[in-house]
Design brief:
Strand order of the largest sheet of chain B: 6-7-8-3-9
Distance between the termini of chain A: 63 Å
Oligomer: heterodimer
Keywords (chain B): ATP-binding, Nucleotide-binding
GO molecular function, one term (chain B): ATPase-coupled lipid transmembrane transporter activity
InterPro entries (chain B): AAA+_ATPase (IPR003593), ABC_transporter-like_ATP-bd (IPR003439), ABC_transporter-like_CS (IPR017871), P-loop_NTPase (IPR027417), Type_1_exporter (IPR039421)
Largest interface: A-B, 21 and 28 residues
Structural class of chain A: mainly alpha
Order of helices and strands of chain B: EEEHEEHEHHHEHEHE
Number of domains of chain A: 2
Largest sheet of chain B: 5 strands, parallel
Radius of gyration of chain A: 22 Å
Radius of gyration of chain B: 17 Å
Structural class of chain B: alpha/beta
Shape of chain B: globular
Strand content of chain A: under 5%
Number of strands of chain B: 9
Number of helices of chain A: 10
Order of helices and strands of chain A: HHHHHHHHHH
Protein name (chain B): ATP-binding cassette domain-containing protein
Helix content of chain B: 25-40%
Shape of chain A: globular
Number of strands of chain A: 0
Strand content of chain B: 15-25%
Chain lengths: 265, 227
């Protein structure tokens, strides 16, 4: 089965469907017409550019360039996580980027070694495609996990200190916040995994089937990617919090507020 | 105020020594040059108007606030990151602001007793029963959620937890502010009567000052106005 190539006119018809939400927005005075147009235009331009760039990268297939590209993606993801979590960019960003890089390469290496053996580890079709997908999910999970950790510890700082004063080691006093952070970050992925195939067909699998693969082959990739996503979120949050521990707390276990962006202390 | 303890250092080794301690909050000096020796078994009550930094002194001795100058010693060992956990293992702290997770009292106590430092408390729920009785709490309070307790009940749960840990030093920050006159007397008599315990109290309740075993430490000379 060959992949059906959508003609440009067909794609234009697909975009024409946006007239419906735009009309709804106009009628209900939602004031999101401008944002809808800008977001759609941005999506189209960004995807065209990335498609051209990926074509170029796939043809070139240079391990060095592939690694550089994935590193750039990691740096952007690290910066995005740090800023979204309202953390001090200069101090926190390097550690966040390192934790993303380590978790990503651990999984990519493991998958290449034991699961997908058809590609080289640094081959563009493996590293950039799989790496990008994992990184995107890792970004989302790490933002949720880190935000939840720091929000809860800031909100309950006095309870945390009270536990330290009652003899808790730092890890013991932090345990509820670590648990909350991890479960908050992983629950959406768990819910997705639990309902996949019944409530919805996942994007990767759908894309592969439309692209000509058999459903059986498509679900193998889907299972692999979901487990990899679950793992990459777990490892990146754990590693992130571990690397940020020395920055986040002083030698007496007290929360260091200078880690937060714009904090007076 | 009938007893005023000498705040200069004595020659015996004190359990706690504040040595010329100054504290600042957001670049504002709140305590300057505070010195005090507290010996084993002594009961001291820090006295000053509210909002002037008394609590900060207790927090500094727990390592939660770093002095801008001066030092704090426990048994001649200067408070430092290397020994802070060991020192906290010797102290039971009852904070002024009693913030708890909304969980059953039983879970809260079991959680505290599960800390590595507190594993010597073999049967915490059996051990706490007599303490509940002393402070006029019913055993059924263990099944109540902390969020539903009154301020006075929370205060007594915090006091019972502190006692359960069998520490030698007690830091009590306004520990009787939500109690009626009778319960205040019960708590004050209990904490100030054991000769083995070293107790440092911050309180506005006159009953603490009037107790025969309490030594009053006025802080007028060290404070710089409201925090």
């Amino acid at each position: 089965m060959e992949t059906y190539d959508i003609p440009w006119l067909g794609l234009a018809f697909a975009c024409g469907l946006l007239l419906i939400p735009i009309s709804v927005s106009q009628c209900w005075k939602l004031d999101i017409i401008r944002e809808t147009v800008i977001a759609t235009a941005r999506m189209c331009v960004q995807l065209v550019l990335i498609a051209l760039f990926l074509e170029y990268l796939f043809n070139l297939n240079s391990p060095l360039i592939n690694i550089c590209w994935i590193s750039v993606m990691v740096l952007f993801a690290g910066s995005s996580i740090t800023q979204t979590c309202k953390l001090n960019l200069i101090r926190v960003f390097p550690r966040v980027a390192l934790s993303l890089l380590v978790s990503l390469f651990f999984i990519l290496f493991y998958m290449r070694l034991l699961v997908i053996r058809g590609y080289g580890l640094f081959e563009a079709k493996y590293l950039i495609v799989l790496g990008g997908m994992l990184l995107g999910n890792s970004l989302r999970g790490t933002i949720v996990g880190l935000s939840s950790f720091y929000d809860s510890i800031r909100k309950e700082e006095k309870i945390y200190l009270y536990k330290l004063s009652l003899g808790a080691r730092q890890f013991e006093a932090l345990r509820p916040y670590l648990q909350h952070s991890m479960t908050t970050a992983l629950k959406p992925t768990l819910a997705t995994m639990a309902t996949m195939g019944i409530v919805f067909l996942p994007g990767m699998m759908t894309g592969q089937v439309l692209g000509g693969s058999s459903p059986l082959l498509a679900i193998k990739y889907q299972i692999m990617i979901m487990i990899a996503i679950y793992l990459v979120i777990t490892i990146s949050i754990m590693f992130c919090i571990f690397l940020l521990r020395r920055l986040s707390f002083n030698d007496y276990g007290v929360l260091n507020h200078s880690i937060f962006k714009g904090s007076p202390r | 105020m009938k007893i005023t303890k000498q705040t200069n250092m004595t020659q015996n080794h004190p359990v706690i020594r504040f040595n010329n301690v100054s504290l600042s909050f957001k670049d504002k000096r709140i305590i300057t040059g505070f010195s005090l020796d507290i010996h084993k078994g002594e009961k001291v009550v820090l006295f000053a108007p509210s909002g002037t930094g008394k609590t900060s002194l207790l927090m500094s001795a727990l390592g939660f606030i770093q002095p801008s100058s001066g030092s704090i010693f426990f048994d001649n060992n200067e408070l430092a990151p290397s020994n802070i956990h060991h020192l906290r293992e010797r102290i039971a702290f009852v904070p002024q602001e009693l913030l708890f997770h909304d969980e059953p009292v039983r879970d809260f106590i079991e959680d505290i007793c599960r800390f590595h430092s507190n594993r010597h408390i073999a049967y915490p729920l059996t051990a706490i029963q007599p303490l509940l009785k002393i402070f006029h709490l019913k055993p059924s309070v263990l099944d109540s959620s902390l969020g539903t307790l009154s301020g006075g009940e929370k205060q007594r749960i915090a006091l019972c937890t502190a006692l359960l840990l069998k520490r030698e030093i007690f830091f009590l920050d306004e520990p009787t502010s939500a109690l009626d006159a009778h319960l205040k007397k019960v708590v004050i008599d209990y904490f100030l009567s054991n000769p083995e315990w070293t107790v440092c109290v911050v309180s506005h309740d006159k009953e603490w000052y009037n107790h025969q075993n309490a030594a009053i430490i006025p802080l007028e000379g060290y404070i710089h106005g409201n925090v």
